[in-house]
Amino acid sequence: MRHCCKFKPDDIYYLGETNLYIYRMFTIGFCPICGKPVAEIYQVRFDGVPERFSWSGIEANDAMTKYSDEILYSMKEVNYRKFKSKPFGWKYGVNRSYKNNRTGKEVVRQYACDFYGNKELIKTF
Ligand SMILES: [Zn+2]
Fold it and tell me: C-alpha dihedral over 114, 82, 78, 38, to 10 degrees?
């Protein structure tokens, strides 16, 4: 992000797609030089043209309020979920089969996995 200098955002929010924009990201942070809150939106239009707007101070607050109900998830949330090791976001199924040593029967375990390396056992059959 950029204000008086370039700095890392405090959090990144992924926004839902609209008819016009296919990729949307909203970042917030505080300028390390003047301390003002800064908000930035980066979105890619359906025809591939990227657009970027930024706001600072009270306007950053207004922008945050404006886009808050379009937020799908945030980077911090993803990291938190990663820590909790529960699958998050787009999940895909994985089946693992193995032989139960006690009964000698084949057991299939179905897992839900996500793209952040988390997996969760859904069912065993
Ligand atoms: Zn600044």
Answer: -150
